[in-house]
TrEMBL record, chain A:
<dbReference type="InterPro" id="IPR036388">
    <property type="entry name" value="WH-like_DNA-bd_sf"/>
</dbReference>
<protein>
    <recommendedName>
        <fullName>Eukaryotic translation initiation factor 3 subunit C</fullName>
    </recommendedName>
</protein>
<dbReference type="InterPro" id="IPR027516">
    <property type="entry name" value="EIF3C"/>
</dbReference>
<keyword id="KW-0597">Phosphoprotein</keyword>
<dbReference type="GO" id="GO:0001732">
    <property type="term" value="P:formation of cytoplasmic translation initiation complex"/>
</dbReference>
<dbReference type="GO" id="GO:0033290">
    <property type="term" value="C:eukaryotic 48S preinitiation complex"/>
</dbReference>
<dbReference type="InterPro" id="IPR058999">
    <property type="entry name" value="EIF3CL_C"/>
</dbReference>
<feature type="compositionally biased region" description="Acidic residues">
    <location>
        <begin position="162"/>
        <end position="177"/>
    </location>
</feature>
<dbReference type="Pfam" id="PF01399">
    <property type="entry name" value="PCI"/>
</dbReference>
Automatic annotation (TrEMBL), chain B:
<dbReference type="InterPro" id="IPR045810">
    <property type="entry name" value="eIF3h_C"/>
</dbReference>
<comment type="similarity">
    <text>Belongs to the eIF-3 subunit H family.</text>
</comment>
<keyword id="KW-0648">Protein biosynthesis</keyword>
<dbReference type="InterPro" id="IPR037518">
    <property type="entry name" value="MPN"/>
</dbReference>
<dbReference type="InterPro" id="IPR027524">
    <property type="entry name" value="eIF3h"/>
</dbReference>
<dbReference type="Pfam" id="PF19445">
    <property type="entry name" value="eIF3h_C"/>
</dbReference>
<feature type="domain" description="MPN">
    <location>
        <begin position="15"/>
        <end position="149"/>
    </location>
</feature>
<dbReference type="GO" id="GO:0005852">
    <property type="term" value="C:eukaryotic translation initiation factor 3 complex"/>
</dbReference>
<protein>
    <recommendedName>
        <fullName>Eukaryotic translation initiation factor 3 subunit H</fullName>
    </recommendedName>
</protein>
Amino acid sequence: MSRFFATGSDSESEESSSADEITPKATGTTLTKQALLLSDEEEDTKRLVRSAKDKRFEELTNLIKTIRNAMKIRDMSKCLEEFEQLCRAFLKSKTIVDKEGVPQFYIRLLADLEDYLNQLWEDKEGKKKMNKNNAKALSTLRQKIRKYNRDFESEIANYKEVDEESDSDDDDDEDWGSETVDSGSESEDNEGNSASLALEKPKMFAKGTEINTAVVVKKLHEILQARGKKGTDRAAQIDLLHALAAISNENNLGEGVSVKIKFNIIASLYDYNPNLAAFMKPEMWKKCLECINELLDILIDNSNIFIGENIAEDSENLAISDQPFRVRGCVLTLIERMDEEFVKIMQNTDPHSQEYVDNLKDEGRVCAIVDRLLQYLEAKGTTEEVCRVFLRRIMHTYYKFDYKAHRRSLGLQGESKSEQDQEESEGEDSAVIMDRLCKFIYAKDRTDRIRTCAILCHIYHHALHSRWYQARDLMLMSHLQDNIQHADPPVQILYNRTMVQLGICAFRQGMIKDAHNALLDIQSSGRAKELLGQGLLMRNMQERNAEQEKIEKRRQVPFHMHINLELLECVYLVSAMLLEIPYMAAHEFDARRRMISKQFHHQLRVGERQPLLGPPESMREHVVAASKAMKMGDWRTCHSFIINEKMNCKVWDLFPEAQRVREMLVRKIQEESLRTYLFTYSSVYDSISMETLADMFQLELPTVHSIISKMIINEELMASLDQPTQTVVMHRTEPTCLQNMALQLAEKLGGLMENNERVFDLKQGVYGGYFNRDQKGGYQQKQGYQRGTFSRI
Amino acid sequence: MLAQHSTVSLVRPCFLSGSQVVLKIIKHYQEEGQGSEVVQGVLLGLVVEDRLEITNCFPFPQHTEEDADFDEVQYQMEMMRSLRHVNIDHLHVGWYQSTFYGSFVSRALLDSQFSYQHAIEESVVLIYDPIKTAQGSLSLKAYRLTPKLMEICKEKDFSAEGLKKAAVGYENMFEEVPIVIKNSHLISVLLWELEEKSTVPSKHELLSLSSSSHLEKSLQMLMDRVDDMSQDIVKFNTFSRNTSKQQQQKHQYIQRRQQENTQRQSRGEPPLPEEDISKMFKPPQPPPRMDTLLIAGQINTYCQTVKEFTSQNLGKLFMAEALQGHNS
């Protein structure tokens, strides 16, 4: 359409002022309208009533006229002034513009003015000659118009094409290619109206050129040369490439060329964002996905295309011939990049918006693409490439809970589900896939990083599906704990995630101690959020400058992969409670008592500091309240604090097998409460019947028996079991508080002595050894001493 | 008023105080002191011949953080002036302080007693132990700094050498002054009469057999002090190690310098200029010894208290045993 218009217009039109730039003789659908609105000048004398539109446009044209005059005499300050007025006037006529579209003459002026300014700017000599005011005005105006023109980018580009066209039609059929390459390289400092490369979209080839592979490739190179340059319009370039692809398809140049072009389209799509932090716009992203899909279609359909990074440009074979195509490029890299872009999009979307959900729907497409690539590469790629694509696949799998497999393993409800579900559940279990992929990587991978990631994902997946022993064994076998600190941050984040998942898994299985150990590192730092890559902590700027913050932001895990932090903390606190409360009861008087969990103690202290104790609200308060109940051996209250409506919906229901976890928890609470009770109150009993205990804690007699036996064996409880009457007889040999104190004092005095002797050593030099010789051992054995002496009495 | 007739006499360095003073101190503690909080006040009296007689006292008001601009000196002067108006002895002769399980040997006490003794030579500090008193035996002790310690405090030389030279140990930091409480005859008569009349045996606390809580508390505090002591010793240890290390370095440096100089001399070159060695090797700051000494003193008092307490308790236990045997 525009092309038609351009040929119709006069070539000299650009010289003339805006008023008569388009002559009514031009024909065409668009032109009738324009002609009407633009040719008002001769007619307005006859008309009495002018429309608002005419009035506005007249104002604009007048202003434009003055600007053009000022341009001619190089009066920059005048130009600036008028330009500002023009902008204002344009703003006023906004309603009309909205209705009618931006008037052509306006665009023309903007384009001309910018070119003119650029030209002046480049002309160093001329600039020197300018007076101060003018020079200043020039620079401001240049900046202004740059900014201003950004809004009219497409229109100006359009205009310029037209311009160009009319130019180029004059000179006959010249060799287009060479000229544009020239002009491309010097487009910046050339005459403003000479085409910068990106602007020549509609017409690729001169009329009549025979389009063959060589020409297209040449053209492609031309386009690519502009890539990365400052003035290049990236959007236009993408369009250009699309057009080229269309042409090559039209002319049946074969898959080689189109693959080549596709590669470049995708690459320039990635290039679209100048900096790394920005993410793709949705339409770009859609386009990218489509392109990649098409590319994969071609690649999979045509097995005679070889692609590779190591194929040199000149050894490419793009023409249709008997030989297979050879194309330079790496589809794997493209798809990896696509994956990263996807992550970036997810990172930059508000996780609580509908938009996020919409974006997340693309996850399926991304997975599908990765899957297709995987099939393709399995057949064609090197092992290294296969490893890489496997890792991608793993990365998309490991964090998803396989509900179907879970349901199947339970062996029920298969029928009640809909057809589609049925169909899907036919597919491979994710566990099997993970196993297959990971094992391949373990065997074949030679870069450490991929293997590490694969192991971690594998462990995570195991842990997520409650395969605790496999997960633990894999973790121990990999020895990752020892050297993970040398890994790069993303891997460390993955490691942290894995550890947390492992801990939660252990908890579900009732391995409280393991759970506590696994979670200790993450929780004790108080930076769980940061360590898991789920958000930045508020910190002052001294610790982290903007640059670092950007880097850290890029490491964040997308929201749909997050591990629930409250769940994590709750699991940790509950396991700490189950360990710590009996321990505290057992070592009530021990001065050397160390804390098992600092964080748990912190929570307890916070709870104690509360001036008014209401019913618990938050998860932490629940745990603290439960701990207090447990301290008294009151398991029923403890139970009701840990498992209730609030906690269920906050925490426990998040587990896939919530009911089982709750049962386990009740059991643990009963057992640990029993232990706590015995520790705390053993001193007031002479003997206690096990049946009573079993009744009190709702445990079976054998369990009570085993718990008490264990305590006796570990010398935690000074008692013996009386078999016939089924009672526990207390020995009452626990040291009293005062005795404990005295023992501690003795110990401290020992330490003091030792220190004192050291001072003496220093003074006496050689003599010192004499004093040390026989006493060292005595103080060192103190650990066993305390309990030992009393239990033997 | 009965109380006005009671006098406190002082024999040589010893002194006695009237029951009015004692009662006032006790009352002050009952009203304001709680737990480990400490109450303080001013003692008034006069020196008669070789005795210091304490005839009156008044408390320092408890002031909180909010009224920081409260002027204590002003208050004291005001108080004493008012007392003079009503013709009561108004000479400042010391101060009193309550104590918590016998913990009073502290830097603060040392400093303030020093300034008292420095200004008014005969000043004493009365230490009142409410807990022991509650157990049935009035515990009131008077202390003065020994002249040796006064010397040291005056020179502010708390280094190890200074203390060694002055031969001040933890035992002879404070001297205890014997107290004689003397009531006027009228009061004695009144007391006798009251004892006759009182029906409730008021002395049963004295025979209380429970000992553990008191001992526990004492042990706990003793332990804390021992910890402090340990820390101090470790500090001192590091210090002495550092010093010796530096000494060595210094020595080496001097030797090297000498060697070089002799070499230069043999070559006929001028010797290297003398540099300030003390500047190059700054001796490490020695840890102050005074605190350690005070801790030692405090430990000593604790030990005394515990010893006293246990021996009393043992006695009580024997008595109880005998009683049991007698009954059965």
